[in-house]
Amino acid sequence: MGDLFDDYDREGFFDEVFADPGVRTHYQGVVERLRRLSPTDLERRERIRDGIFRSAGITFTVYGEDAGIERTFPMDLLPRIIPAQEWEVVERGVAQRVTALNRFLEDLYVGEQAAIHDGVVPRWLIHTAEGFRREAFGIPVPHGARCLVSGVDLVRDHEGTYRVLEDNLRNPSGISYVLENRAAMTRVLPVAFAEQHVQPVDHYGPMLLRALREVAPPAAGEHPVAVVLTPGVYNSAYFEHAFLARQMGVELVEGRDLVVDEHVVHMRTTRGLQRVDVIYRRIDDDFLDPVVFRPDSTLGVPGLLSAARAGNVTIVNAVGNGVADDKAVYAFVPDLIRFYLGEEPILPNVDTYLLWEDEQREHVLDRLDELVVKPVAESGGYGMLIGPAASGEEIEVFRDRVRADPRGYIAQEVVALSRHPTLIDGRVEGRHIDLRPFAIAGESVEVLPGGLTRVALRRGSLVVNSSQGGGSKDTWVLEDDADGTGGR
Amino acid sequence: MRLDIRYTTRFRYGAPVAESQNELRACPATDPHQWLVHYHVTTTPSSRVTSYTDYWGTRVDTFGIRAPHDVLEVVAEATVETGPRPDAPSSVPMQALRDQAFMDRHLEYLQPSAHVEWGPSVGSAAQACADAGDVIDVVYAVHHHVAGFEYRTGQTYVGVGVDEVESQRAGVCQDFAHLAVAMYRELGIPARYVSGYLFTVDDATGADSELDEVEVETHAWVEVAIPGWGWLALDPTNSQNVGERHVTIGRGRDYDDVSPFRGVFSGPREHELEVTVAMRRLAVEPLGERLAAEQSQQ
Amino acid sequence: MLARLAENLFWAGRYVERAEDTTRMVDVTYHTLLEASPDVAAQTWEQLLEVLHLRGAYGPDPVDVATVLRFLVLDPGNPGSITACIARARENVRSVRELVSSELWEAINDLHLALGSRDLGEELDDQPFSLFRSIRRDCMTIYGVASETNPRDEGFRFMALGRLLERAEMTCRLIDVRYGQLEALAGPSQRLLGAHAGPPGLARAGQGADRADFHHWITVLKSASAFEAYRRRYRASMDPADVVEFLLLEPDLPRSVLFCLTGAMRQLEALSAGRASRATRLLGRTTASLQYRDVSDLFDEDLHTFLDGVQDQVAEVAETVADEFFRHHPSGMMHAIATG
């Protein structure tokens, strides 16, 4: 009798589970388990999974779709597994990157701007980055923890090398899926999970809360009050905002719940004003404070920046991090690591072409059908050109755009993202994946084991974003002493 | 010249306002040409005012009021001493503007910004000045072009486009400053918007007063970066170089970076606004001589 | 707790109650008018709209049973319609989902979705009684679920407070509707007989109701789920004064005004625990003035005016609760200013 994996074809890609002699060691236990499941078993488990997600109300909103604004982010039953030694490299690499970026941002906003003066990053590039916020100058952040939460997107190339695709230093989302996926997996495949000695993730809430308290302003005293600031129930990530507030046991507030009095932030409660020391905000910079940013914004808190500047409240993540999310600035991060830390980058970037350089631009324009072109200020996979999949017409559109605004785009070689067996209509097929580990930087940097593995559910697609029809996988980082075979 | 300045903004609201949060940029800067002796802000109702220096180097006073009030009055009192400014250099070649390091350093003042977005009409007006000669000649050609416009209040508002100012050939100081800045940037000459006070009896001409006390409005002019020399300040509204009767508050890409007062309040939208600036010239010896006198006494 | 969330729960309680009580009033009015002439019917519906403060919102449409029913039951443009109340209750609970049991959210959400998916217009034409009954039952399910799945925390108390204050007002209105109906039935000529005597159906305390009215008072009692309790108390006697007194002052009847006010007082005292509260004082005064009222006097005066007075006082309590707990740090629309 055949099993799930009998017809599986790697189709020449780097596969997370299968290598030439067969199943990679760290997947053997799980593959063995899954092989024993009958199609009926699998269906039953998928039903259990669906029930769990539906009743938890785990949804996100896709902009630009009119019908049923809330969708679920489907979790595949086959987990992604990362052995301890491999994870150790990813963990160090992510921590290194976040450390360097924090140093860079701190230096940029309250320091000497050494990276600019020493020519590591061009001044003009910083000044033209959409996320650069002059309004944030001089606003202190304890421990320089400007990127307190980051969700660094990693991909593995055709050789299995982990590379950084984006840093996501503003408001990375997805952590709620990590925790909910894990909760669901332990119920859907309890035995397989129990055998594997997987590093836990459920301490994320306490971990985040501790870091938030570490960056409370000195004036806060012994028991700083932290809150999660959401734009409201209609925001696409509202579920996650509520989830995080619940995980940490703190209030989920909207801008109208907060008020600034004498440069101190308070929340309005039924028993009067209560002081707030740390705000984990999930509102973009432009909407934070109408006195300083968009005057028409009703989502924010008038006077908030003044309170932060006075050292009476800490805004997390810091204002102005978007400058380092600019995809052209991204190209300089390896240099920033060398400059600020004196270390070689542990995780390489994806090779990136800077299009204001005449030579690189012409080279790119000649090869548009082979490359990926991305707008520098977008995230979430919006507005990009994937050359090999694009029509001649689309390519010409991007040719014009790049010519008109070379600073506005970057180009990258197409990365043949690694693939992972994925359940598609009862069959196992290879699908491209990425990995978003979540790092928390308070006094020190800590990376949650694993992170969000996103899957491009459409056959052949390289786009894993939830907004573009992606799914997810529970991501298991094995304990040091576990080898994946189920034994110790 | 020593000047006392009293800047007052008064809001009368249609109904009591429960909350307002504000930023004030009214404090004279201290720089090589002027020295701030004294500065104090009071608000009615009273509030805790805190200050910081913003990205552009301007002192900002921030305050919030959370007691219901019908009227908000903000008074900034300053005493400042101004000195003469050096004359522009005689000749600077145009190619000096193309120096990479010079351009990189002044990038923010070379690009369009919120109130300095220009189209073909401003572009061609600027280009008509491009052949005037060297950098100084070109700078003055633009200056005189804008200075030839009619000073007319009530026609414009902050936010009017520079192309409209060019076609109307009329406006107030903010409009002229924005237009001049746009023309300079079009020509690759770094230019910034300056917010300040001018001691004058007539906003249109900038004429000096026979009396030592005047009532004025806040003023705006421009500064251009001259390669190898520094910033040259020009007042296109009054067709003059900036001198001792000009008091600088701050500089930025345009009005938005230095607007004297911005904030939000809650309550009905209706409000009346009154801004007054009273300036008094004080009879004191020039700073240099006074310092010398003090030293000789010791 | 956050003032905004407390306010959401307070209004969730009010809106569910308003939906239920509107259902009860529409039901009783519809029922009593089945055999009435079109004129009388129109006048009575007119009065119901007045009592619900919805006459203005109703607009110039002719006041006939089909139009009014649609307006009060399913018109999304009418903020007081039953479906609109449920929708608003749901919106309020939606933003406090973190603070209430998932069962409570589901109960409200289910009702909202069910009303949205049913052809209510057809049900109104076809089976209005069963429609009213099912809405009443679903509303009561919501309270049951709320009461059995939530801890007695601040949030729960605000919801209960909202519900009780709303019900106190609505019971006043229920009596008032009945009073208005009797006026309408009596017609203008009879009303002339005595300026202060009230309509004949209410005649005088102790006079008893005539046969036609007998049936109508039963309906009123039923609509307040009070008929069985009344019969146990007063046996076969059906005196209008007794009915009014029962609905206003019976301390153990869950829909009596007094019951609601004393219940609201308990919640308010727990909420303001130890703090001086103007809302508590106001509510105490309203309750006391009601408690010591001799109802038979009311028929010598104007019952309608009296009921209006009680409603006004309850509204003032609610307003004070809002000031003290939700809006003690007022905020409104923010406007930007930038000047020279």
Q: Might you state the CATH topology name of the largest domain in chain B? A: C8orf32 fold
Largest interface: A-C, 25 and 22 residues
- Spatial gap, N to C terminus of chain B: 25 Å
CATH class of the largest domain in chain B: Alpha Beta
Largest sheet of chain B: 5 strands, antiparallel
Biggest sheet architecture of chain A: 5 strands, mixed
Element pattern of chain B in H and E: EEEEEEHHHEHEHEEEEEEHEEH
What is the annotated CATH architecture of the domain at 352-413 in chain A?
Answer: 2-Layer Sandwich
Rg of chain A is 23 Å
How would you describe what is shown here?
The complex is a heterotrimer of chains A (488), B (298) and C (340). With 488 residues, chain A is of the alpha+beta class. Chain A has a domain at 352-413: Dna Ligase, domain 1 (2-Layer Sandwich). Chain A has helices at residues 28-35, 39-56, 84-110, 114-117, 123-127, 175-188, 190-195, 204-214, 238-248, 304-309, 322-325, 327-330, 333-341, 358-366, 392-404, and strands at 60-61, 70-71, 75-82, 149-151, 153-156, 162-166, 226-229, 251-253, 258-261, 264-269, 272-275, 278-281, 314-316, 352-354, 371-375, 385-386, 409-413, 419-424, 427-436, 438-441, 445-447, 452-456, 470-477. In chain A, helix 2 crosses helix 6, helix 3 crosses helix 13 (333-341) and helix 8 (204-214) packs across helix 9 (238-248). Chain B has helices spanning 100-105, 120-127, 135-147, 162-168, 173-186, 255-258, 287-297; strands spanning 2-17, 19-24, 34-44, 50-53, 59-65, 69-82, 150-151, 170-171, 191-198, 213-216, 218-226, 230-235, 240-241, 246-252, 261-266, 271-282. The mean pLDDT of chain B is 91. Chain B starts with a strand and ends with a helix. Chain B folds into two domains: 2-83 and 260-297, Immunoglobulin-like (Sandwich), CATH 2.60.40; 94-208 and 218-254, Roll (C8orf32 fold). Helices cover 21% and strands 39% of the residues of chain B. Chain B contains seven helices and 16 strands. The longest helix of chain B has 14 residues, at 173-186. The N and C termini of chain C lie far apart (42 Å). By secondary structure, chain C is mainly α. In chain C, helix 2 runs antiparallel to helix 9, helix 9 runs antiparallel to helix 16 (303-326) and helix 14 (278-291) packs antiparallel against helix 16. Chain C has one domain. Helix content of chain C is 71%, strand content 2%. Chain A binds chain C through residues 55, 232-233, 242, 245-246, 251-254, 256-257, 259, 267-273, 290, 295-296, 298, 302, and chain C through 1-4, 6, 94-95, 97-98, 102, 154, 158, 271, 275, 325-326, 328-329, 331, 334, 336, 338.
